[in-house]
Amino acid sequence: MSMIAAFYGGKSILITGATGFMGKVLMEKLFRTSPDLKVIYILVRPKAGQTLQQRVFQILNSKLFEKVKEVCPNVHEKIRAIYADLNQNDFGISKEDMQELLSCTNIIFHCAATVRFDDTLRHAVQLNVTATQQLLLMASQMPKLEAFIHISTAFSNCNLKHIDEVIYPCPVEPKKIIDSLEWLDDAIIDEITPKLIGDRPNTYTYTKALGEMVVQQESGNMNIAIIRPSIVGATWQEPFPGWVDNLNGPSGLIIAAGKGFLRAIKATPMAVADLIPVDTVVNLTLAVGWYTAVHRPKSTLVYHCTSGNLNPCNWGKMGFQVLATFEKIPLERAFRRPYADFTTNNFTTQYRNAVSHRAPAIIYDFYLRLTGRKPRMTKVMNRLLRTVSMMEYFINRSWEWSTYNTEMLMSELSPEDQRVFNFDVRQLNWLEYIENYVLGVKKYLLKEDMAGIPEAKQHLKRLRNIHYLFNTALFLIAWRLLIARSQMARNVWFFIVSFCYKFLSYFRASSTLKV
Ligand SMILES: CCCCCCCCCCCCCCCCCCCCCCCCCCCC(=O)SCCNC(=O)CCNC(=O)[C@H](O)C(C)(C)COP(=O)(O)OP(=O)(O)OC[C@H]1O[C@@H](n2cnc3c(N)ncnc32)[C@H](O)[C@@H]1OP(=O)(O)O
Ligand SMILES: NC(=O)C1=CN([C@@H]2O[C@H](COP(=O)(O)OP(=O)(O)OC[C@H]3O[C@@H](n4cnc5c(N)ncnc54)[C@H](OP(=O)(O)O)[C@@H]3O)[C@@H](O)[C@H]2O)C=CC1
Questions:
Q1: 0.90 cut: is pTM over it?
Q2: What is the ipTM of this complex?
Q3: What value does the mean pLDDT take over residues 488-496?
Q4: In this structure, is residue 324 part of a structural domain?
Q5: Computed over its alpha carbons, how large is the radius of gyration of the chain?
Q6: What residue's CA is closest to ligand 1, atom 18?
């Protein structure tokens, strides 16, 4: 019997960010391995015209939860959606709901965050810092609370090269930042943002670092742990391989490459691609929840959930495998054939952006205009290039994350728990994982049918022929122009034509003699 699964039995668990990528996988695993848990409270806001209930219904009826329904048929009764907007004071939670949360909660998993790289400092602080502070305040009033698990990111200290499992202080206190954002206007905030974030690349990594400081400062006598995953990718094994449902991290770029939009990227092939499957992160998170509640470590422990130091893979290998998978399993209606190379030089990047990205988009938009349709490709391409530029920081550097706490925890688990809550990335076969990831992107994210693969291959063949035809036409036009202007080109041309003529005459004569 798994000790961790048994631990969550009968527990009331509060999850923030349960509608997000990681939150959904966390809920799924909890219900599947501990179907006798008491209740999962989730803090949800209405979104995109959907009520709370509609959002929960959609999640529970998704492919991800198919296995859960077999082991926990009354899952609908065990999930309690509570209206909450983490941007509001007290999260806008009603008095009755707050009372229930305060008196019943045993474990908190705090996953909610804004993960956008381009968020304003005000919004990122509100969600990643102030909301964390408020949740800790709530937690401190929960008499039955056994553990508070905070999800951060391995990149919260990406300004350092070697990162230990400790909380590093930021120069300005989070409280000072929160206070000053209350009275500063947006224009001033925008102006001071670069100074505050310093050598971090965006407000996301900066505010996640501030969030960790808040956790340390407000921990009181609660049992708290911080988990720092690196780049979270599709599932490795559970509930099935390759599940993914959003465009964050590599997923969006995998689509862009498969559809032939992204054909060159400024990336260092030898830099470590520190990807970590979402089910691995969830397994570690649940193991940490158990360990923190049962063993009550004296201080707040930080756990790195990374792959680089135990089982490294680099961006070159990853990109190569992504493209190799598209050979076998192409995406439907590609814009161009998937092809891409890594460049590390700024000039080459600009050149490739102009020739491989912007020029085809302009030509395609011209064709759309000619055929009476609305041009859109240039806009799509500009958006993609902006996204890629925000990822560049992460694909041109390598980091070393120490994993002492994570390895210590692994050794504390029983063999059964090591199997059920496996977070040992040494067992991960990257080539297999990436192939499943690409397949998952096609099936679960793009919802493409596998039956369409022959047609997708035909489409790629047509694109290849168009590509050859286009290049030949371009060459002939260029050559014709050259001949018209240069005597030397004319001489070369005359030489080639007469050589071909002589060769053909000789060939014809010798074949006539043989007959
Ligand atoms: C040697 C050589 C060998 C061979 C070479 C082969 C080369 C192959 C090259 C190709 C290789 C491709 C495969 C390799 C992949 C490499 C990729 C590497 C990625 C690395 C990522 C590193 C990140 C690490 C950071 C740390 C991790 C974290 O802690 S946080 C999680 C990461 N966070 C993110 O990823 C968020 C990033 N996103 C954003 O910040 C913003 O979305 C944006 C700024 C990028 C874009 O903002 P914008 O306002 O323009 O657009 P937006 O409105 O956000 O969205 C546009 C449309 O997309 C839809 N969308 C966006 N996000 C989502 C979502 N999460 N889920 C669903 N849909 C989403 C959105 O709805 C919009 O759609 P429309 O409304 O229809 O327009
Ligand atoms: N994805 C990754 O690569 C990595 C993620 N992380 C961390 O993991 C955690 C989970 O990330 P992930 O699941 O990928 O992120 P998602 O963007 O998929 O999910 C974010 C969650 O936060 C919720 N949320 C955001 N704003 C509010 C709000 N105002 N009120 C209530 N809920 C809100 C979202 O709700 P809604 O659905 O309503 O928007 C959603 O459930 C985050 O803390 C992130 O920093 C760390 C490393 C890598």
A1: yes
A2: 0.90
A3: 88
A4: no
A5: 28
A6: 250
